[in-house]
């Protein structure tokens, strides 16, 4: 289900306050972070998980996530034991932003106690929506590697900064650009054609324009 | 520091309490715990130490019309509203390893608040230790608080900084990131609206990023020996007067706190105008 501009798979369970999702049955669950936590962090730079075998009580911490904007803990939705950790995501925390429901999962748990804070999407969709609004969460076609907030800057200057950034970045680098220049939407379409880079998404939020662009694989 | 062994050996351990001490004083009416966040919504609003009040740095700690830190009247109102008296011990903590809590600490000291402490490790350590949080906001009976000060000794203004450039016996410490110091970036990407016209640093300044004073794992301060080495290696020693600055004067409050209270340097000032003032000023030279 799409809630505002964020994707929440129907078949998963969620703990809205804790910012996590769960997938599983028969007392074994895989846990990961939902878009709310991914967005507030600004992109994970550090991710820590307790070791396999650790028993964690409901509401206590399984680990922590940290980005340039926010530090938070990930809490157990029920009394549990950690049976597996995603070692790939531990090495590259951004995977939990880029692929939150697949490769970016965090831990696998066996449930011990009955009491759980998880609910189905049907039950919690309204509170997820409220949370996305409260925290002003944006979800984009691709999670950005770099953020550029260019407020009060004229479009030509913004594009020159963007080009400079693209020039110094590896192919596939994804940039979230925010501009308040009213001509930005047209200029960005033109920029895409001229540079050969990709404009993945373009949307308006009040007086602000959000763009997600990706550097092409070539040598533009 | 209350509640720990003396291994950290800070010059003024009385300005720190640890999370355990706060846990043991949650019901102590002579203690008021205040959270100071960059982002109160995603932090204090998501759950705070039971009984803790919020000092909102944007609303409570600034005087936007004068481009100044909060006025004495604002502080008196803030303290009155939160039931603080001269006998209250104010304990500050917050997100980003106490970055904004340290800024509030400096503000409070500027207005002569005697009994103010930081909770070592801040919000991060409290969360990591699975200590209790609540979303309930406690209301306290209003008090009438009369502030003293201002203590100008701990604050530096632009002309004073200008006269101090390359002056013997004084040293400027730029606590921003290395790329801000060299002018490669004008502001960190997370704080895009805090640009200056020029990138670079005040001539002669030493670059010692504020975060180097912190153990990243739990947000606590490094030991005195580690901190002493960090500053000494850049020629920042207690025989000199030290002026700290950053972009808007908050990260530099953190380093001011480290130098003045943990290392016990006698003369430390925070230049809160910092780069957004200096970097924009006509005929104030910079280096890159």
**What's the CATH superfamily of the largest domain in chain B, by name?**
Rhodanese-like domain
CATH topology of the largest domain in chain B: Oxidized Rhodanese, domain 1
The backbone outline of chain B, from C-alpha atoms, is globular
Structure annotation, total helices of chain A: 6
Count of discrete alpha- or pi-helical segments spanning 4 or more residues of chain B? 10
- The side-by-side strand order for the widest beta sheet of chain B comes to 1-7-6-2-3
Number of strands of chain A: 16
Q: From the structure provided, what is the oligomeric state, counting identical versus distinct chains?
A: heterodimer
Shape of chain A: elongated
At CATH's second level, what is the architecture of the largest domain in chain A? Beta Barrel
Using the coordinates above, name the CATH class of the largest domain in chain B: Alpha Beta
Share in β-strands of chain A: 25-35%
Helix content of chain B: 25-40%
| Tally of separate domains of chain B | 2
Mean pLDDT of chain A: 91
Structure in words:
The complex is a heterodimer of chains A (220) and B (288). Chain A is α+β, with helices and mostly antiparallel strands. Chain A has 2 domains: 2-134, RNA polymerase II/Efflux pump adaptor protein, barrel-sandwich hybrid domain (OB fold (Dihydrolipoamide Acetyltransferase, E2P), Beta Barrel), CATH 2.40.50.100; 146-214, Translation Initiation Factor IF3 (2-Layer Sandwich). The longest helix of chain A has 14 residues, at 121-134. Chain A has 6 helices and 16 strands. In chain A, the strands form 4 sheets. Chain A has a 7-stranded antiparallel beta sheet. Helix content of chain B is 28%, strand content 13%. Chain B is built from 10 helices and 11 strands. Chain B has helices spanning 19-24, 57-60, 72-81, 95-110, 122-128, 158-164, 178-182, 224-232, 251-262, 274-278; strands spanning 16-17, 31-35, 53-54, 62-63, 68-69, 89-93, 116-119, 170-174, 206-207, 241-245, 268-270. In chain B, the strands form 3 sheets. Chain B has a 5-stranded parallel beta sheet. A 4-stranded parallel beta sheet of chain B has the order 9-8-10-11. Chain A binds chain B through residues 17, 40, 42, 46, 60-61, 64, 68-73, 134-135, 146-152, 178, and chain B through 39, 41-43, 46, 95-96, 123-124, 127-128, 130, 188-190, 192-193, 216.
